[in-house]
């Protein structure tokens, strides 16, 4: 246990806030007139920012900010007063709940909202009588969270960014932190490498992270399980398994070993599309290290079998004793700045604040005793399950700070689903693609106008501070949600300030218990916060797993059959983002700085695959799946492996997600953005 960071808020940085983009959580301040500067903070000790953080001020003064509520009249969105907009929402939600019951509403929280905003939204949903509340973690790391909770009891980084310096080997699977978590890469990964750590990178595409790697395994998309299982077999046969750890901290070893014993490493390597010798070398780099840490991203999680992918990685960590010690663990790199917090505070259909199952009667009673009402006992539907029921059993949706018309798979079907709703409310900064289809649009606040807390990728809760007010006509998100709560459920969900909401959160969430809004100051407090107020829980699961057990089971997983059924004409589309862009691009596409740095969208295709299809570099191509077609410009490059193609998904104009099918991982209901069979041909 390391000492906790200095907590006092000395007023030195009265405007210090947290970057609104990725889950690293760099500190910055809004300087007015669209300008941002980095501040010394818990993560970026010298105040460094990546280009997105440096450009984060631009959205605040963007001329397209919404500054009046909008309501739909005769098919058109027209400006309205706040009271007219709230009247419309109150009436429509009241009608839906009265006619169809509370489960006829869907509540989508925001991974870029604060903990307090999300806490309020999920509490409001539950006060109306439904657990139909979810957030966009469903689209990125739901499978990771599911697999980690199942084995360890918590769905979060087992270790921390600081802790990476203790690792001898870093295994990065399906992530590109050099581009997507750049400050973490520079300040935590690269120093570990300079100290001599070995980097193993598993990714179908060679990218900026690969440049720093000692071993690159360009796995065929969808073949992570045979790859990880074969690595485990190599390690076990080489005698590098940690027998003592497995005897003390695991169960079901015999079953797992039986699976490993039957693995043909060469055949598995061939299936995974990597050289057997490279696989063996990477396996020994991980298994032969005394301390090896795994970092995971959406390349592992966003599959039809994403939960099984992560289970295979957890098996590998348990086999080698890489859990519960410094420099080890399974560490998901989270996407948005508060995607960890949105789940922590209960914006999930099956869990109350602190990861407590809604099916746990004792948890419902404990939470209900603070709330003054009992939360419903039946788990709600996940985001994609809700969308699939729009217009049928789900009649209304409240969407806070998300853009599902661009981010959900099978976009054309999603668009029709949203249009079938009786009521769609969108609370956002801009008229997003989703807001264009809304019945009521509420103009909310940018990061520089918000106060509250967010929780970063390594469980640090940090404070955001408002250094300016929303433009005249817009309102703070917390204020909007408070008024909505007052109208729909009355006093039980009303808070004067974000601080009040945070204090209640610490009373109902075991993870956030013992935290103090004041003591976070300009530093942080990490969950689980110990009661002594002094220590910092950097390494989870050291003596017991967070779920309370001393032992975690091995869960053998097999390659899923659908992974093998690819037509010879087809390539596998995998998607990702660039250094300069973020998610659907709602915010970054507006930035002059980021656009200048580069935001072109190409389809990366291996020269051999391009040659076979008569596709020249720079040529316009049609990319088609069973869901539809889009047109992109081809980039012939050996960075992407043969048999796969890659493009970014942040340009709303092309809506790459319209190509993705709507099938979901059975355990976590996450879509498979990283494994879509497509045909690619010259555009006519
Ligand atoms: Fe923001 Fe992430 Fe860049 Fe830090 S690394 S400045 S948190 S986008």
How would you describe this structure to a colleague?
The protein has 684 residues and is α/β, with parallel strands linked by helices. The chain has three domains: 70-137 and 343-526, Rossmann fold, CATH 3.40.50; 142-332, Dimethylsulfoxide Reductase, domain 2; 562-682, Barwin-like endoglucanases (Beta Barrel), CATH 2.40.40. It is built from 24 helices and 30 strands. Strands 6-5-19-18-17-7-8 form a seven-stranded mixed sheet. It is globular, with a radius of gyration of 24 Å. It starts with a strand and ends with a strand. The chain binds iron/sulfur cluster (SF4). Iron/sulfur cluster is lined by residues 19, 21-22, 24-26, 49-50, 52-53, 181-183.
How would you describe this structure in keywords?
684 residues; alpha/beta; Rossmann fold; Dimethylsulfoxide Reductase, domain 2; Barwin-like endoglucanases; 3 domains; 6-stranded mixed β-barrel; 24 helices; 30 strands; disordered N terminus; binds iron/sulfur cluster
């Amino acid at each position: 246990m390391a000492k906790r960071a200095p907590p006092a808020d000395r007023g030195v940085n009265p405007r210090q806030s947290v970057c609104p983009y990725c889950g690293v959580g760099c500190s910055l301040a809004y300087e007015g007139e669209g300008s941002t500067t980095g501040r010394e903070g818990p993560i970026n000790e010298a105040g460094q920012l990546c280009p997105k953080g440096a450009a984060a001020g631009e959205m605040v003064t963007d001329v397209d900010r919404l500054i009046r509520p909008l309501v739909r009249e005769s098919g058109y969105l027209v400006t309205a007063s706040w009271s007219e907009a709230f009247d419309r929402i109150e009436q429509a939600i009241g009608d839906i709940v009265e006619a169809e019951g509370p489960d006829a509403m869907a509540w989508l929280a925001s991974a870029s909202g604060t903990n307090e905003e999300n806490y309020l939204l999920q509490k409001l949903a539950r006060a109306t009588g439904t657990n139909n509340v979810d957030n966009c973690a469903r689209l990125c790391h739901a499978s990771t969270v599911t697999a980690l909770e199942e084995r360890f009891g918590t769905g979060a980084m087992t270790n921390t960014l600081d802790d990476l310096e203790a690792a001898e080997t870093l295994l990065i699977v399906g992530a590109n932190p050099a581009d997507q978590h750049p400050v973490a890469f520079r300040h935590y990964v690269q120093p570990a490498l300079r100290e001599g750590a070995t980097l193993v990178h598993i990714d179908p595409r060679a990218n900026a992270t690969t440049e720093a790697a000692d071993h690159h395994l360009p796995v065929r998309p969808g073949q992570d399980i045979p790859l990880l299982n074969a690595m485990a077999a190599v390690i076990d046969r080489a005698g590098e398994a940690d027998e003592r750890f497995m005897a003390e901290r695991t169960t079901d070893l015999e079953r797992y070993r039986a699976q490993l014993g039957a693995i043909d490493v060469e055949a598995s390597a061939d299936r995974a599309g990597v050289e057997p010798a490279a696989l063996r070398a990477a396996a020994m780099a991980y298994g032969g290290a005394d301390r090896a840490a795994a970092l995971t991203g959406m390349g592992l999680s966003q599959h039809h079998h994403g939960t099984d992918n992560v289970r295979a990685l957890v098996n590998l960590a348990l086999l080698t004793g890489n859990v519960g010690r410094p420099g080890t663990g399974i560490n998901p790199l989270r996407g948005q700045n508060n995607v960890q917090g949105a789940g922590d505070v209960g914006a999930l259909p099956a869990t109350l604040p602190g990861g407590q199952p809604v099916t746990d009667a004792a948890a419902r009673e404990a939470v209900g005793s603070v709330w003054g009402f009992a939360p419903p006992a039946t788990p709600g539907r996940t985001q994609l399950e809700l969308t699939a029921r729009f217009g049928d059993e789900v009649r209304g949706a409240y969407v806070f700070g998300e853009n599902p018309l661009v981010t959900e798979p099978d976009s054309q079907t999603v668009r029709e689903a949203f249009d079938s709703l009786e009521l769609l409310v969108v609370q956002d900064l801009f008229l997003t693609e989703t807001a264009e289809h809304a019945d009521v649009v509420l103009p909310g606040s940018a990061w520089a106008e918000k106060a509250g807390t967010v929780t970063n990728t390594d469980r640090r809760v940090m404070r955001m501070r408002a250094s300016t007010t929303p433009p005249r006509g817009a309102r703070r998100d917390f204020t909007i949600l408070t008024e909505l709560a007052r109208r729909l459920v009355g006093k039980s969900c009303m808070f004067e300030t974000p601080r009040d909401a945070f204090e209640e959160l610490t009373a109902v969430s075991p993870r956030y218990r013992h935290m103090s809004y004041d003591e976070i100051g300009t530093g942080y407090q990490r969950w689980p916060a110990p009661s002594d107020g002094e220590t910092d829980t950097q390494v989870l699961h050291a003596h017991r797993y967070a779920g309370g057990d001393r032992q975690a089971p091995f869960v053998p997983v097999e390659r899923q059959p659908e992974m093998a059924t690819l037509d010879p004409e087809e390539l596998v589309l995998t998607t990702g983002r660039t250094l300069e862009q973020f998610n659907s691009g709602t915010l970054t596409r507006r930035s002059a700085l980021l656009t200048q740095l580069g935001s072109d969208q190409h389809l990366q295709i291996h020269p051999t695959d391009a040659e076979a299809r008569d596709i020249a570099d720079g040529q316009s191509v049609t990319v088609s799946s069973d869901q539809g077609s889009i047109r992109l410009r081809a980039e012939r490059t050996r960075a992407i492996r043969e048999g796969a193609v890659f493009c970014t998904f942040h340009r709303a104009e092309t809506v790459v997600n319209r190509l993705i099918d709507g099938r979901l991982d059975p355990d976590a209901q996450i879509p498979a953005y990283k494994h879509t069979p497509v045909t690619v041909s010259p555009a006519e």
